[in-house]
Amino acid sequence: MSHIINHRLNQFSWAVAALLLLPLLFTKGMFFDGLTYATIARNLEEGLGTFWAPHYTVYIHPEFYEHPPFSFGIHSIFYRLFGDQAWVDRFYAYTLYGLSILMMRRLWSLFISAGHRAWIPQLLWTITPGVIWVHQNNMLEAPLNAATLAVTWLLIEGTFKRNYFWSALAGMLLYIALGIKGPVGAFVIMVLPVLAVLFPEHRKASLWSGLAMIISFSILFSYSYLYVPDFTKFFEGYLNKQLMPTLGGLREQAGSVGGSLWTIGKQFIVPTAVLTILVIRKKATYKVRRESVFFFIIALCATLPFLFMDRQHHYYFMPAMAYWMLGFAILMEQNPWPWSIQRKKWVVRLTITNLSIWVIAIGLSLYFSKSPSRDKHVIKAMKAISLDYPESTIQVTHLPSQWKCAAIAARYEKIQLCEAPQDLYLNVRGETVPEGYELITEYPKAGFDIYKKATP
Fold first, then answer.
1. Gap between the Cα atoms of 269 and 256, Å rounded
2. Which 3 state secondary structure label does DSSP give 450?
């Protein structure tokens, strides 16, 4: 009976994911970083820019060096398969959610014999606020998380089974992980040293596994740097224009250590509350297991570097959450109750609950399919402008203050904003309109109006 209940809870974890993700699948509107990445991927599919020289707009990052291009390249394949549809952006991110869950389940099965309880870390991770937000908004942390989890799984799989082919494959995936968002994915190189310390029976195998990973990664990187001129150009541009200025504190400065700790703490509310309830119910503390310690240390390796940076955003910490939740889940699983509960009525209740959640998720997805999820007035305004002036270029006074508007225009209507003189002018309400322009259309809900250069 306990296995049946765990099977239903397995289904419940997927149903919760559907409820949190599906309602936004067919809607427009995302965080503007996600819109930017989607535009670059779409451009890549349409032949604007190349893999090692991605293109955003003619006026904003005509060669995009802000992040490595692997996520854009993979995302562009989805456009090739499904066309330039707004839902493709979230479908891509949701596919990565599924891959991340698969990797978490594989990691769970390597350490915990009760594989049917893999729903515990899955559910904890799914209801973590930052996780859902990242996947809803097509952030680079989604592919980064899937890639780093895959590297972790392959390294441990290769070490435990003494099959170093998996470890060599991990080196190739590490190359991809670093190619998604740079050195922030390098925390996985700590997997084997931590494993060797906590699991001394695998110490020698960890050494060989690490060697296989280093060799395969080094071969890939060296070949790319020495024999792929476009890679060399991109690598130097990324290093000089983005990475080194960021590390030197010369780029955007945002967030603080206190704010980041508060953000991370909020992600721990649910697992901490559940663990507290289980401890009270058992009337004794739970033993600290080395498997939990392993995942907690890896999570710290993924978390701590950001606390020393001048730029700290809440979504930067999302890849660490999978390891935090695996650590919490392994702590929770060690005692029979409540995982071994045997009551037929719970099977019936869970079955009805799962079906109900899926019906609600699908219903909400259909209901919201015709409505933008955010920035709807700007999206509708850009759509109206595009009908009269398709794929036009519009002048603005100060482009950096219009990044979101530029991202929406570029992604959904292929409209470009710039500061150079143009026939069309977007005037933010309250600002002074340049001489020589006449009003065409007002968009009060969007917060701007469109003017056209007056005919002499």
1. 20
2. strand
Say if CB 393 and CB 424 are below 8 A apart.
yes
List strands edge to edge, sheet with 416-418: 416-418, 393-395, 424-428, 448-453, 437-443
d(CA 196, CA 299): 17
Provide the 3-class DSSP secondary structure of residue 448.
strand
DSSP sequence for 322-390: HHHHHHHHHHHHTSSTTTT---HHHHHHHHHHHHHHHHHHHHHHHHTTTS-SSSHHHHHHHHHHHHHST
Burial zone of 395 (CB within 10 Å; 0-12 exposed, 13-18 middle, 19+ buried): buried
168's enclosing H/E stretch is helix 164-181
pLDDT tens across 217-228, in order? 999 999 999 999
Token digits of residue 178: 């670093």
110 near 160, Cβ under 8 Å?
Answer: yes
Query: DSSP for 265-282?
Result: HHHTHHHHHHHHHHHHHH
- The token pair at 166 is 């998996």
- Compute CA distances 379 → 75, 84, 443, whole Å: 22, 16, 11
Q: Which residue has the tokens 């997997």?
A: 191
Q: How far is CA 138 from the centre of its chain?
A: 6
Q: Within 10 Å of residue 167's Cβ, how many Cβ atoms?
A: 28
What is the C-alpha separation between 22 and 19, in angstroms, rounded? 6
| Phi, psi dihedrals of residue 59, rounded to the nearest 5° | -105, -20
pLDDT of residue 140: 95
Place of tokens 């190619």: 179
Rounded to the nearest 10°, the torsion over CA 360, 363, 365, 369 is -160
pLDDT band at 456 (very low <50, low <70, confident <90, very high): low
- Among 150, 34, 43, smallest CA distance to 92 is for 34
Distance of CA 239 to the CA centre of its chain: 22
Q: What is the pLDDT, as a whole number, of residue 366? A: 92
Judge whether 20 and 93 are in contact, CB under 8 Å: no
CA distance 393 to 347: 59
pLDDT at 1 over 60: no
CB atoms within 10 A of CB 342: 11
What's the CA angle centered on 25, arms 22 and 26, to 5 degrees? Answer: 130
| Burial class of residue 284, CB neighbours in 10 A (0-12, 13-18, 19+) | exposed
Beta bridge partners of 448: 428, 443
Strands 416-418 and 393-395: parallel
